[in-house]
Specification:
By secondary structure, the chain is mostly beta strands. The chain contains two helices and eleven strands; from the N terminus they run βββββαβββββαβ. Strands 1, 2, 3, 4, 5, 6, 7, 8, 9, 10 and 11 form an eleven-stranded mixed sheet that branches. A hairpin with a 2-residue loop joins strand 1 and strand 2. The model has no long low-confidence stretch (mean pLDDT 92).
């Protein structure tokens, strides 16, 4: 069971996301609407966040990772399809131990994944958008963000 609860049209959850980097490039999934996003997902009840990020990346693109460090904690608040969401998200800097699969399945659909150069983040539709600037300006210390959309 993952760490989410829903009351009426409000959902609250805790999740992890992977900042998978290799030589100034970030590995991202791409939705059918040309929106890019990080690999990751909900944390299970009684699962540590570092265990969750390893599990999620392996489930999504079939690669083991080395967890480097926690880079960002983000409080995401957004609406989607008549539902309101509040998510606490742990974004970990991770290193792949082999080449990840170039595709993954999510929501019954195949999604393409690709390496995007950090300098090109400004030109893509990236969710969460704060990463376009925050990642290039990151000082190596844990940072907290509030992301309202």
């Amino acid at each position: 069971m993952d760490f989410r609860t829903k009351v009426n049209h409000h959902s609250f959850g805790v999740r992890v996301s992977a900042l998978m980097l290799k030589k100034d490039k970030l590995y991202l999934a791409k939705s059918p609407k040309d929106e890019y996003y990080l690999l990751g997902g909900a944390i299970f009840v009684n699962e540590l966040s570092e265990e969750a990020i390893k599990r999620e990346v392996y489930e999504e693109v079939g690669v083991d990772i080395e967890v480097e460090q926690l880079a960002f904690i983000v409080e995401n608040q957004f609406s989607l399809e008549d539902n309101d969401y509040h998510q606490i998200e742990f974004l970990y800097l991770v290193t792949p131990l082999s080449e990840p699969n170039p595709e993954m399945e999510e929501g019954g659909q195949q999604r393409r994944c690709e390496w995007i150069h950090l300098n090109d983040l400004e030109s893509i539709n990236l969710n969460p958008a704060f990463l376009k600037k925050a990642l290039n300006n990151w000082n190596g210390k844990l940072q907290h963000f509030l992301n309202r959309e």
